[in-house]
Amino acid sequence: MVYSSISHSPSMGDIDIAMNLKVSNYEETVRQLDIYYGIVKRQLLRYQSPTTGLFPVLSNEEKIASVRESIYCAAAVWSLFQAYRRIDDDRGKSYELGQSAVKCMRGILECWVKQASRVEIFKKNQTSKYALHCKFHLVTGDAVFSDDEYSHLQIDVVSVYLIFLVQMITSGMQIIYTQDEVAFIQNLVYYVERAYRTPDFGMWERGSKYNNGTPEIHASSIGMAKSALEAINGCNLFGEKGASWSVIYVDIDAHNRNRSIFETLLPRESSSKGVDVSLLPTVSYPAFATHEEFLCSETKNNILRRLRGNNGFKRFGRDGYKCVLEDPVRRFYKIGETKEFENVECEWPLFFIFMIIDGVFKSLPDQVEEYRNLLTNTICKDLNGDPCIPMYFYVSEENIEYERQDPGSQPRCNSAEGSGGGEPLYLWNQAMFIIAQLLIAGLLHINELDPIRRYLPSYNRPRKVGRYSAFQGTATDLVVQIVLIAESMRLQAMMATYGIQTQTPHEVEPVQIWSSNQLVQVYQRLGVNYKLKLSGRPMRPVGALGTSKVYRVCGMTVLCYPLIFEVSEFYLYRDMALLIDDIKTELQFVSRYWRLSGRPTVCLLIREEHMRDPQFKEMLDLMAMLKK
């Protein structure tokens, strides 16, 4: 026995070998990270504005910064920052990367804060006239395009910003500094929460596929908004050092409406676009807007079947952007012009990268390998020898007719942008490429890229202690708790004679029983900021899900009764049969669509006027049924 134990114990030589392997692996990791650090410095940070922190679309642009590209560039820089945190001594690189990402996120915030008046109006009137801008001056941060010159209403941009803001704060970065900024972020939540009913111009900034200046409801925008609401709900913007007043609150009913409309629209993008590749980053990284397996696979397969090409993905069918047939001077198309672009749409290799990242998150090595090979065929080299990816691939003019007759038969030419040499870089491509490479090389774990675990179904995500409420998905054994409140002791005694136990508001103290209108007035104070002239949540009623939560308001525990019990002068308010039907519908709705952790608590308020109704017996029967 003694000899056996000695023979299995590691020798000094084995220990030395293990240590050497560990050191060599560590040194190899540092070497690889330093290579990517050089690429990030040369291809991204080199073009970050030293004043605003924003990034342009193309590296040769000196005036116009794009919010969307800036967010993804910041995400790439932050990803490398996350990877460097594994290293003991990075010689200041990690700090520099982290602060560069913070500067960009704060730069976007500062540009938007200057437009706080737009947010205030947009909350009440969701039109493009009052939308936050998506393009700013690269140096000054001022607006560069008027609402007539550019389609600024892109709800997905604000949503993506909120998602990455939460991701970065969760990773330990400090981005939000003051209570004014907390109030503004709360108002950004109000800005996106009505995405389900706000026609916008979508990811491609053109609205309808006919490019006639008409916005439309986009599934990608709604999905991004849904993800943003889930991500930021209950998030403390000051991180672990924050208090209750730095927490962001989300209307769960608004979230539910976005979820419902989004999942109804899928796999379609909008009324004019049957399929759009913008749904790829919506159902996969970075939004992970739905975890319904059927919807995800159907949407993804629809995109692959109809939009994938040899050099990238088409954005959507009959997309004329950057096609040789498109008039670059004219902003909008003529009626029927999109027919000209059928089968000759440009292909965008950017979405090969999204498919690689999707494969890493979903543990699909074959998919990763397939799209790596496809992407490799598109990669060029810049003057520094760094890899760069063309912005798009187009069909040359002489091959247009051949391609129309036999789609996929003609070779495509890569765009000048991103084609290497001294040509400008397309920064969104480069940012996503860096993220994908870090994941593939094992330098970055998916949990480091997605600290809030958006890629997991909500019920599998770790519970954060600092979260005031969190989404958990559909519970299989959900129990709806029902509280019966009698308006008076006399009514309580009468109900007791029928064997129905109720409580009066006085008996449940210190729990306060509020009407939903009182809750609306409290919510109206959320996000108020007099310096920015922001008024907080608009006076919208709180829905069935919102009144099924237990609230803490100024130290008080508050329970609300639903809107159906509000006193009204309208004659239907006195219809007992309708009220009974509404109660059943309310309970069914809550049990079906409750997505928060914990059990919903529905408060049923019985009034004396109900008792005097000839149909009160039906109400008693309902109460008796609920008791069972």
TrEMBL record:
Residues 32-467 form the GH15-like domain. It is a lipid-anchor. It is found in: Cell membrane. Phosphorylase b kinase catalyzes the phosphorylation of serine in certain substrates, including troponin I. This is Phosphorylase b kinase regulatory subunit. GO terms for cellular component: phosphorylase kinase complex; plasma membrane. It comes from Clastoptera arizonana (Arizona spittle bug). GO terms for biological process: glycogen metabolic process. It comes from the Eukaryota. The lineage of its organism: Eukaryota, Metazoa, Ecdysozoa, Arthropoda, Hexapoda.
